[in-house]
Amino acid sequence: MVIGGLTEDEFDLNLSKTLVAVGPSRGQRGDGYIRGRVDKACFELIANSDLPETESTVHIDLSAPLMPPYAVLLR
Fold first, then answer.
1. Is the pLDDT of residue 10 over 90?
2. Which residues, 6 or more positions from 18, have their beta carbon under 8 angstroms from its beta carbon?
3. Verdict on whether the full-model pTM lies above 0.70
4. Angle, CA 33 vertex, CA 35 and CA 48 arms, to 5°
């Protein structure tokens, strides 16, 4: 992924309000995706969801904007 730079941010993120944004698990809710298997992810926020919220909250220390071309294949 191509990012525009890291920013120090301090906030809590409820993973039940996110979806996996890229990859084979795209569209899966964040709280189910993170559950003990990975420690990094690219999520998109769900504006309005009918799905029940969970108490799956993580603390965020860094964030970065995605920049075009968004991804680069290296060989």
1. yes
2. 29, 30, 31, 43, 44, 45, 46
3. no
4. 115
Cis peptide bond N-terminal to 69, omega within 30: yes
DSSP-assigned letter for residue 63? E
Q: What are the pLDDT digits (tens) for 30-67?
A: 988 887 677 778 889 887 767 677 778 889 998 888 88
The CB-based long-range contact list for 58-61 (8 Å cut-off, 24+ gap) reads 58/12, 58/13, 58/15, 58/34, 59/10, 59/11, 59/12, 59/13, 60/9, 60/10, 60/11, 60/12, 60/13, 61/8, 61/9, 61/10
